[in-house]
Inverse folding.
C-alpha cells in the first residue's frame, strides 16, 4: 500500500510539469469551447486538438465568435463549471475503450489450448464487458489525467485562422500566469 502512495504522488508531480499542465488546461478549455460552440452553431461539425501552447478548433466558425466563446469558456471553467472540461466525443474515450477492450480480449484468449470458436465465445462477452466499462472509465481518465479544469489566470495571446484541406482551422494561442 505504501508503494501505491508513492506512485500516486509521483504521477501527481508529473501532471504538474508546466508542459503537461498546459496541455491539460488547454484540453479542458478546448472541450469547454466546443461545448459552447456546439450550442451556438447546431449542425456545425467541430473537432479540436490541444498542445502545450494552445489548441486547434477544426470547423466553420467565425473568428470573432470563437474568441467570444473561448473567453466565456475560460470564465465558466474558472467559475467552477468543471463539467464543461469533459466531452463525450473526446479521443481519450476512444483510446480508453481501445486499450481496455484489447487487453481484456487478449487476456480472455490466453491460457490453455482451446479451439478458436471457444476462444471467440470467451472473447466476445469479455470485449462487450470492457466496452461497457470503458465509457465511465474514459470520463474518469479525462477528468483526472488528460484535462485540468481548474484554470489559473489565462490570456488569449492570439487566434490564427487558416485553411487546411478545404476546412477552416483556428489555433488559439494561450498563456497562463
Amino acid at each position: 500500500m505504501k508503494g501505491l502512495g508513492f506512485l500516486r504522488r509521483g504521477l501527481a508531480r508529473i501532471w504538474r510539469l508546466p508542459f503537461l499542465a498546459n496541455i491539460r488546461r488547454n484540453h479542458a478549455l478546448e472541450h469547454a469551447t466546443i461545448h459552447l460552440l456546439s450550442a451556438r452553431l447546431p449542425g456545425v461539425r467541430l473537432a479540436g486538438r490541444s498542445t502545450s501552447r494552445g489548441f486547434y478548433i477544426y470547423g466553420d466558425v467565425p473568428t470573432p465568435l470563437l474568441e467570444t466563446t473561448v473567453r466565456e469558456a475560460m470564465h465558466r471553467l474558472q467559475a467552477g463549471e468543471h463539467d464543461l472540461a469533459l466531452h463525450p466525443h473526446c479521443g481519450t474515450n476512444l483510446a480508453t475503450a481501445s486499450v481496455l477492450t484489447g487487453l481484456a480480449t487478449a487476456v480472455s484468449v490466453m491460457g490453455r489450448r482451446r479451439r478458436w470458436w471457444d476462444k471467440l465465445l470467451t472473447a466476445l462477452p469479455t470485449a462487450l464487458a470492457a466496452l461497457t466499462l470503458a465509457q465511465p472509465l474514459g470520463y474518469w481518465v479525462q477528468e483526472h489525467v488528460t484535462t485540468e479544469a481548474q484554470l489559473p489566470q489565462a490570456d488569449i495571446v492570439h487566434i490564427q485562422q487558416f485553411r487546411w484541406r478545404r476546412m477552416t482551422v483556428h489555433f488559439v494561442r494561450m498563456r497562463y500566469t
Notes: The chain has two domains: 2-86+149-176, 91-143. The mean pLDDT is 90. The radius of gyration is 20 Å. The longest strand covers residues 154-164.
